[in-house]
């Protein structure tokens, strides 16, 4: 995840637990999703970003979208490609989901 979000996490081991309910969730996500899925061969990081963003838009997962729009840019997606992704998603997920994606992208990318 450090490669996907440069400068966000300090080097070395970090404890992501906050002592609240389900505080192992982030650790589980890092090891199973980032450690297992994102490191697989077969799709480039750029392609994984396109797939992930498409799924998140369909789910309406705005907080995750914000993170993944930033990751998508790190993985080589241009602002024009992100816009096209949102436009394309509107045809399949509906206007409200696409509007939520646009708002998440603007918040994440300061655009």
- From the helix content, strand content and strand pairing, which structural class follows? mainly alpha
- State the CATH class of the domain at 44-109: Mainly Alpha
- Topology as a string of helices (H) and strands (E): HHHHH
> CATH superfamily of the domain at 44-109, called what?
AhpD-like
Q: Judging by the overall fold, what is the CATH architecture of the domain at 44-109?
A: Up-down Bundle
SSE map:
Layout: H1 25-37, H2 45-59, H3 62-74, H4 79-93, H5 95-109
Helix pairs in contact: 2-3, 2-4, 3-5, 4-5
Description:
This protein has a domain at 44-109: AhpD-like. The longest helix has 15 residues, at 45-59. The model has no long low-confidence stretch (mean pLDDT 89). The protein has helices at residues 25-37, 45-59, 62-74, 79-93, 95-109. It is globular, with a radius of gyration of 15 Å. With 111 residues, the chain is mainly α. It starts with 24 loop residues before the first helix and ends with a helix.
What features would you highlight for this structure?
111 residues; mainly alpha; AhpD-like; 5 helices; globular
What's the short version?
Helix content is 64%, strand content 0%. The protein has five helices and no strands.
